[in-house]
Specification:
Distance between the termini: 23 Å
Number of helices: 13
Shape: globular
CATH class of the largest domain: Alpha Beta
CATH superfamily of the largest domain: ATPase, nucleotide binding domain
Low-confidence stretches: 394-406
Strand content: 15-25%
CATH topology of the largest domain: Nucleotidyltransferase, domain 5
Order of helices and strands: HHHEEEEEHEEEHEHEEEHHHEHEHHH
Mean pLDDT: 85
Number of domains: 3
Structural class: alpha/beta
Largest sheet: 5 strands, mixed
C-alpha cells in the first residue's frame, strides 16, 4: 500500500502518493484513493482537483453505487506529460519520446562507432529535437531528457549523477559533463544514469516489476550491467554505480578473454567481440536484431557464445540471490527476446545443482518486458520518476538544473 500523511509540510509528497496510486491502480474513485493511501477524503479531493486542473489526470468514467451522485473514476492523462530517453553506448544511439502512461510515441535509432563527446552531444541534441518534431509538440512540453550511458558514472555534490568517466567503454570520455553540456543546448532538465539502472527503473515503473518491491535487473547492452531496486526504489549505492555486474573479475581465462588485461564477466557478453567472431566465420552482422535469425538457425558461434556466457554468469546470479535476497531477477536489454529466454532457461537448469540444500526459496528468473528498447525506455522514465515518484531521496535531491525543472512541471503549483 502507498501510504500518505496528513502533515501540512508533506503536501507535495501526498500529491505524488495520490498520482502514483492512480497510475498503478486507476481508474479509481476518490473514496478508493483515500482508502488506499490512508489520506482523508478532503485531502484527496483537494489534491485531485489540482491534478485535474494541471491536466495530469482526467475523468475516465462515472459509476452509480446506490442512491446519490455517481462516483467519478479518475485516471492518468497520457498527454499530461512527455519525456525523452536517449540510450547511448559504443555501438548505437536509440531515442524514444514517451507519454505519462509509458507509451512510446516516437522512436529513432542509429548504429554508430565510438563517438567522441562532441559528436555524441550533437547527436543527443538532434535526436531530441527530431523526436519532438515527429510528435508535433513544443519542446517546452517535454519534462526532461534522460540519458543512459555505460557505467561507471561520476557523481557530483548532492549525489546527482552528472559526469562520465568510462575510458574503456567510451575512450576519451573522462569526466565529460554530459548534463550541463546538453541542458545548455536544450534548455530543459537532463538526467544521467547508467543504462542498466535506468532499465531497472523502467521495469519498476512500467513493466512487470511495478508490483515487485525488490529485484535485480541483469542488462545486456554492448556488454553486461545491472540495476538494483530495493523496496520499490532504485538503490544507487555510495557512488551511484550499484549493480555493476559486468566488472566482476573472473578467475578462469579462456579464448573469450584472450588479450584482456583484467578478465571480467562483461567480456563474455561483449557484442563487438561477438560480431568479430561471427565475421571470422563468414557471417557479417552489425545489429543485435540480426542475431535472432542466427539463433533460429542454431549458428554454432552464437550458440557457443550464449552457453559460455550463461555458464559464467550462473555463479554471480547465485551471489545476487544470497547477498540481496530479491523477489525476482529480470533479464533484458538489447539482445533479442529469444536469446534472453534461452539464457534464462539455461540458468533455470544450472542453478538448482549449485544452490545449497538449505535454501528456503529462490527468486523468480524473469524476462524483462521492454524488449530491446529497455534502456531508452528506462532513461525516458527518469524525468517523470524524479518529478512524480513518492521517493523522499528523489524529492530531496538538489538538481543543478533546478531552474529548468520548474518551467514546465505542473507540480510546481502545489
Amino acid at each position: 500500500m502507498l501510504t500518505g500523511t496528513n502533515l501540512q509540510h508533506a503536501k507535495l509528497y501526498n500529491v505524488r502518493i495520490v498520482l502514483e496510486t492512480i497510475r498503478l491502480y486507476g481508474p479509481l474513485s476518490r473514496v478508493e484513493i483515500a482508502r488506499r493511501t490512508n489520506l482523508t477524503a478532503q485531502t484527496v479531493t483537494n489534491i485531485t482537483r489540482q491534478l485535474l486542473k494541471s491536466n495530469l489526470i482526467l475523468v475516465r468514467d462515472q459509476i452509480q453505487n446506490g442512491r446519490g451522485a455517481p462516483s467519478v473514476l479518475l485516471g492518468i492523462k497520457p498527454t499530461g506529460a512527455y519525456s525523452i530517453g536517449l540510450d547511448l553506448d559504443e555501438t548505437h544511439l536509440t531515442g524514444v519520446l514517451m507519454d505519462l502512461m509509458g507509451t512510446i510515441r516516437q522512436r529513432k535509432s542509429v548504429e554508430i562507432s565510438l563517438p567522441s563527446p562532441e559528436e555524441a552531444i550533437q547527436l543527443l541534441e538532434s535526436f531530441t529535437r527530431e523526436l519532438v518534431a515527429l510528435e508535433q509538440i513544443a519542446l517546452e512540453r517535454v519534462w526532461g531528457v534522460g540519458v543512459g550511458l555505460p557505467g561507471p558514472l561520476g557523481v557530483s555534490e548532492g549525489g546527482v549523477v552528472t559526469n562520465v568517466f568510462n575510458p574503456k567503454a567510451l575512450p576519451g570520455w573522462n569526466n565529460v559533463p554530459v548534463v550541463s553540456l546538453l541542458s545548455q543546448r536544450l534548455g530543459i532538465p537532463v538526467f544521467l544514469e547508467n543504462n542498466a539502472s535506468a532499465a531497472a527503473i523502467g521495469e519498476r515503473w512500467f513493466g512487470a516489476g511495478r508490483h515487485i518491491g525488490t529485484f535485480f535487473y541483469v542488462f545486456f547492452g554492448a556488454g553486461l550491467g545491472g540495476g538494483l531496486i530495493i523496496n520499490g526504489q532504485m538503490y544507487p549505492g555510495f557512488t551511484g554505480n550499484a549493480g555493476e555486474l559486468g566488472y566482476f573479475p573472473v578467475v578462469r581465462t579462456d579464448a573469450t578473454l584472450r588479450g584482456i588485461d583484467r578478465p571480467h564477466l562483461g567480456a563474455y557478453f561483449n557484442l563487438p567481440s561477438l560480431y568479430a567472431k561471427l565475421g571470422e566465420s563468414g557471417v557479417k552482422i552489425s545489429h543485435p536484431n540480426e542475431l535472432e535469425q542466427l539463433y533460429n538457425e542454431q549458428n554454432p558461434v552464437l550458440i557457443d557464445w550464449i552457453e559460455t556466457g550463461t555458464d559464467q554468469l550462473a555463479p554471480f546470479i547465485l551471489g545476487i540471490e544470497y547477498l540481496i535476497d530479491p523477489q525476482a531477477i529480470f533479464f533484458g536489454g538489447r539482445l533479442p527476446d529469444v536469446i534472453i529466454r534461452s539464457m534464462v532457461n539455461r540458468l533455470q537448469r544450472i542453478l538448482p545443482a549449485l544452490r545449497i540444500d538449505a535454501r528456503v526459496a529462490s527468486p523468480e528468473l524473469l524476462c524483462a518486458t521492454a524488449g530491446t528498447d529497455a534502456a531508452s525506455l528506462g532513461v525516458a522514465t527518469l524525468p517523470l520518476y524524479t518529478s512524480f515518484a513518492p521517493v523522499p531521496k528523489t524529492m530531496e535531491k538538489k538538481m543543478k538544473n533546478a531552474k529548468a525543472t520548474s518551467k514546465t512541471n505542473p507540480l510546481k503549483a502545489f
